[in-house]
Amino acid sequence: MIREFRFAAHGSLPLFLASALLAVSCPSPASLAPVARTEQSTGIALPAGGRRIEHAQVRMRDGARLNAAVYLPAATGRFPVVLIRTPYKTEIGAIPVFLNKLIEAGYAIVQQHERGRFLSEGEMRMLGHADEDGWDTLDWIAAQDWSNGKVATYGCSSSAENQLKLASLGHPAHKAMIAYSAGVGVAEAGPFREQGNFWRGGVWQQGWANYFFDEMPIAWPQLPRGLSDAERQARLQASPIENPAVDIETRVYNDARMHLPMIDIAKAANAPATELEEYLRRGPSHPDWDHDRVTNADVIKVPGLWAEALYDISARSTVAFFEKTRKENPAGNQSIVIANGQHCGFGRASAATRIGDRDLGDMRLDYVGRQIAWLDRWLKDDASAATPKSPVTAYMAGVNRWVDFNGVPWAGRDPSRVFYLSSGGRANTLNGDGRLLGAPPAAVSTDAFTYDPANPVIAHGGEISGLGTDQQKNDGSYDQRAIESREDVLVYTSDPLEEDLAVFGYVETELFVGSTAPDTDFTVKLVDVAPDGTAWNIADTIQRMRYRDGEDKQVFMKAGEIYRVATPAMLVANVFLKGHRVRIEVSSSNFPSYARNLNTAKDPYSSTEIAVARNSVFSGPARPSHLALPTVTMDSR
To answer: What is this structure's pTM?
Structure first.
């Protein structure tokens, strides 16, 4: 049974209860008494006369019913539809301006809870059945008497991630997608094998832990099986289903994040059961990562409007998949915004935007206008809609303005500036003698440090906040000089730049390294050093040495041997201004953003054994450790 309400403008209560619309998979509706719903409880203040259909039971091919709410314009007829599939309670209230504009523009909106969440039946899994459930939902929408059969998918984070696999299937009703911060939906893209942003360079991204504990508990409350649609609605009305209670003191994370074996971190934090343990057991290479995620073999032909943020772990693999998709499609039907911001922070910028502590100026952009125009172009066939003139629009930090590009460059393939590591053998700390040179150094040097897993380098900023009181809301750019004072951090810095250096695209780092341990990590952090010495972190990466030849095989190191390793590329949009210096930090930990390497040949997630390693970085004519930055010429928008 489906309840339909009409709303007056600006928060008036429902005026009357209309007869319910008949869903394809639902039984004939019966009359219900009017139930008052406030703006707060419905999540959106619809335009005058707008209609809401509550708790549509959308039946999947295996019989599971997924709960959906439908928002319709005041007019009657058939409308193009915007579909939001979410694991969260609602995404409607977070974006009311856009959604109201959609309804005013003649679009219907469907918000559906993913399988196993809130009133939706089935087993809760991250992105579970993104392909089949998405396809069946499109079938259901196309058959409704308020739908004209043209559907766009929309959302950020999970509501974007579940779009990608669906878009690769080519459902005839799927006419457009708007996917922001969609990286968990990407198993592999180009050279990236992040398996949904969980792994980088073969290392588990430990900052995910608190998200799993807070948002992804498996034991979601469920209504009894076998209820009719009407009975399910009656139960929900009597006792709404809320998020499972999760109450973990932040200070508990300080101890839990160091717990060994790491696979028991949830038990150490007294956290609910999640998929975290299963994911750790899979490791960075497993066929199950491809379930509900796209790979290099998948092709998306649905016109796509994308957005990614550089201080979000989603960016580098999703942008790589966007570039693949752009090249596989006609010009004009794929476009992306790359912001110097945080996960799903699009539209929150102000005239004085900051990312962490760094001032980025006016990063505002008319996301709503772009989205409406995109939908008008592909769902209403409006060729005059003002769609983006360039496939890529990036916010260049430093000069603090939006710039249009025809693609995303790669260092080594496109114009690049190369800096070579050099030292007198003492690059340790900010006060050491590490330098970045414009040509390979003539002298051979070795810089060594001791990495102790019991005393890792603690992250300050970057792409993902991890567990601990020192990591809360820590995503972004901060002064790194305190980190650079550590003996286990090698610091290499260029001379002051004589002119602006505009860097956009994928940054590559190649190092010649060695270790006394059979396995260890090497971390790289790119830093923009201001004339006053402030060291802003721009991007970072990591490589687990056992996976240096690929995530699908483990090859351990031998003491005394030197290995050439290319760390996973970093994605950057930054202008190093005249007078600034380019810097990289090299170490073996960046914790808790990345899980610690225990420096043994055992499994790092189920083992409790740790060892101290003596790690080295080599430079010189025969071992040209270097940093390559893709350089661009900028035209203002």
So the answer is: 0.92
